[in-house]
Specification:
The chain is an all-alpha fold and about 325 residues long. The chain has a domain at about 1-55 and about 180-334. It has 14 helices and no strands. It holds the Pfam family Na_sulph_symp. Belongs to the SLC13A/DASS transporter (TC 2.A.47) family. NADC subfamily. Its main location: membrane.
């Protein structure tokens, strides 16, 4: 979903191994409801901010009872979207193939090791432990280089020469369009996590952070999420996650709580940057249209930051605790 989520799972694997319980399925159960709540909250807030809608007006809009001016505006937007949709035309064979690959990858991720029942990785016996989420991604990626982008013909009767179809993906496209800088940044984050442990810095941090034991865990998580959210407004979210997550892991060890209690909400908070154009590439894309001012983004983004901080705290204390047993110090810390 986001490079910061990948940094979280990578650092957890580097520091604690594969038994942390954070995989595609468990993270989806935690992250999806959080995303839905934040998305609905963002829509409601933007409606109120830019259309001046109260609770009664929101209900009326759901019932298509807005005033005539707003109805005309909605009709114009709907017409434009339908026109652009019709211009797309029917899905090509290549588009359908990529969609099927994407769906298959998600299914394989979820069913690899769903915990409550044996996953398909168990079919490989003792070797099943070597199969990770990355294994699925590499297998699907390899398939892209082999699967044809045009519908294959069952026969070539009457054809002078058999015509081969190009694959869905070629190396030239990967070489020129893959975000190699992001891969290097992710790898650097994992190397940093290893360096923190091997150098002995992790032990020093764990000892120093014991002073925070006097704070309630909820207050500590709220402070961390707030700091991360507003820090990532002016810094790269991937860089922020890369630097802060190993430190939070050792901080949690030092005060005797589950590292996931601090790391997971912090990783999600790295993606909650809504106030400035430089905070995240989507903000910059929207701002580049030229119809928004910085003050407009700050007015809407400040409330969204606060809302998302509240949602992340709420889902961590409830849903996160139910899925990952955050109140228990884990046995996978050695």
């Amino acid at each position: 979903g986001s490079p910061t989520n990948l940094i979280l799972t990578g650092i957890l694997g580097t520091m604690y191994g594969p038994d942390t319980g954070v995989d595609f399925g468990s993270f989806f159960l935690f992250g999806f409801p959080t995303m839905v709540i934040c998305l609905v909250s963002a829509w409601v807030w933007l409606q109120i901010l830019y259309f001046g809608l109260g609770a009664k007006d929101l209900v009326s809009c759901f019932r298509c009872q807005c005033d005539p001016v707003k109805q005309r505006r909605y009709a114009m937007v709907k017409t434009m979207i339908l026109r652009q949709y019709s211009e797309l035309g029917p899905m090509s064979f290549a588009e359908k193939s990529v969609a099927i690959h994407f769906f298959l990858m998600a299914v394989l991720w979820i069913t690899r090791d769903p915990k409550f029942v044996p996953g398909w990785a168990s079919l490989f016996g003792a070797h099943g432990s070597y199969i990770k989420d990355g294994t699925v991604a590499m297998a699907i990626g390899f398939s892209y280089f082999c699967f044809p982008s045009e519908k294959p013909r069952l026969h070539t009767f009457g054809a002078k020469e058999a015509k081969s179809s190009p694959a869905l993906l070629d190396w030239y496209t990967v070489q020129h369009h893959l975000s190699w800088d992001m891969i290097l940044l992710l790898g650097g984050g994992f190397a940093l996590a290893t360096g923190v442990m091997k150098s002995g810095l992790s032990d020093q941090l764990a000892e120093q952070f014991q002073a925070f034991q006097v704070l309630p865990t909820a207050i500590m998580v709220a402070i961390i999420v707030t700091i991360v959210t507003f820090t990532t407004e002016i810094t790269s979210n991937t860089s922020t996650a890369t630097i802060i997550l190993p430190i939070l892991a050792k901080m949690a060890e030092g005060i005797g709580i589950n590292p996931l209690y601090l790391m997971m909400p912090a990783a999600l908070a790295c993606s909650c940057a809504f106030m400035l154009p430089v905070a995240t590439p989507p903000n910059a894309i929207v701002f580049s249209v030229g119809t928004l001012r910085v003050i407009d983004m700050m007015k809407s983004g400040l409330v969204l930051n606060i809302v998302c901080i509240t949602v992340i705290l709420g889902t961590t204390m409830t849903l996160g605790n139910a899925i990952f047993d955050l109140n228990t110090f884990p046995t996978w810390i050695t």
